[in-house]
Amino acid sequence: MNRYIIPNLKNACRILKYMGSTSRSFTCLEISNALKLPRTSVIRIMETLSDEGFLAKSDGAFALGSALASLGDCTIARTNLLKLADSYLKKLTDETGETSHLGVPSGAKVLIAKVCESPLPLHAASRAGALVDMHCSGTGKVLLADIFHKDPSFLKKIRLDKRTSNTICASSALEKELALIKKRGYAIDNQEYHVGVRCLAVPLRDASGATVASVGITAPALRFSPSKDKKMFETVRRITAEFEERLGMKKHA
Fold it and tell me: Strands 131-133, 211-220: parallel, antiparallel or unpaired by DSSP?
């Protein structure tokens, strides 16, 4: 048996799956008999699920709760994420003239899931399917800022390799950078991954406000100077907000 499995959590999953197979309500005794689980355990599990909104209790019987519907909405939104990304990345590239991309977490790296190449002769190339470092890419730092906010220990899983003279390799300095990103709402790769290339990325958030992906542009530093950061941020954030709204994610403040 997997030693990381929590028996009562597994039983809670079994209960939810069983109840999800029909639209009717169940008493604890019915669930206990159907799944051959101790009644006292079922009562504790179902009362806990009810308290968290995953079940709704009425007249001693339980039905599926509204919290499950919210999770379902988020799941559908994420499923549609890659299907809809192309049109919004194209819009972003059309407006900025630069290569745009969508990144998603992949362990301690970032997977560049979608790319729309700039039509300009001189542009920053990017490749869909590439895995990039979190600590020195704009796309990665946006995701890392959200992960670090929830779990500071995650930073220990990342190798802070130095790619250019601008790469932030000290944990303390990176922590300050992540706090700034979380506060201002965007990340900058200021020639930290490749010399001569800058990137700006913003979070793409779900209904709860959690970052599920990042949207950004990559451009030659000669054309995308720091003086253009504010205007670029406004464009990337606006189009990403449209993307969130289409996905049904934009319920946070």
Answer: unpaired
The lowest-confidence range among 28-32, 106-110, 240-244 is 106-110
Nearest to 112 by CA among 91, 143, 90: 143
44: nearest Cα among 8, 19, 20: 8
How confident is the prediction for the chain on average, in pLDDT? 88
Token readout for 105 is 């977490």
Question: If you write DSSP's letter for every residue of 135-187 in order, what string do you get?
Answer: SSSHHHHHHHHHHHHH-GGGGGGS-----STT----HHHHHHHHHHHHHHS-E
| Closest CA relative to residue 205, chosen from 161, 250, 171 | 250
Give dist(CA 202, CA 211) in Å, integer.
9
DSSP at 121 = S
Domains, in order of start, for the chain: 7-64 (1.10.10.10), 74-247 (3.30.450.40)
Q: Say what the pLDDT of residue 246 is.
A: 84
pLDDT digits (tens, 9 = 90+) for 89-130: 999 999 999 999 999 888 888 989 899 999 988 887 777 888
In angstroms, the CA 225 to CA 222 distance is 6
Residue 190 has pLDDT above 70, yes or no: yes
> Which tops the pLDDT comparison, 91 or 53?
91
SS3 content of the chain, % helix, strand, coil (to 5): 50, 20, 30
